[in-house]
Description:
14-stranded mixed sheet; 14 strands; 220 residues; 6% helix
Amino acid sequence: MPTMPKSLFWARTDTAGSEHVVFDDGAGLGARGVVLAVDPIPYTCRYRLTAGSDWATSRLEVEVEGAGWQRSVRLEAVGGRWRVTAAEQGDLDAALRAAGHPAAGLPGADDPERLADAVDVDLGGSPLFNTLPVRRLGLTAASPTTTSSPAAAEPGAAHRITVAWVQVPSLLVLPAEQVYAALGPGRVRFASETFTTELAVDPGGWVLHYPGLADRIAPR
């Protein structure tokens, strides 16, 4: 197993929880992360992510586990399409109903062809995954398409994209339309359906502050 040279940690602000990821972004991105949260029920989510030098995602593997249940999903970009494989042990829906929440349904994608336009993936509750389109679209100095920028991308037009959105803890995979736009140094507007927020990012495009979701914690 390769050693990852970098590490980031976020504290959730929407619920009790956190995210820790170790990664290598020397040529694209290879990352392994763990997300902990108690909403809607306590769970541990582990993921492995691979993106190429253009920061387009090629593979994502996710495992989520709670009391009495475990789910997994794997997304692979093959020949311009997404191959989606999912599995479940135990019964997440029973655990959700026991806690007073509606059932989540089956993991995976009911029709992977609906994901055909997606270049990026987005894991619910994880600020790490916002960096994929931020870097791929050239919205920071470290982005592959902004090599001439000394500090950050200049404010510009909005980029409307489709992502393969992996909901957590259900691991249901759906196409979702999102919009990203550079607002100036360290600022990126993010929108999805009726939700809009302003992300604070460092020069590498890694999220520092995601209002209502998470804040990055610096090591002491």
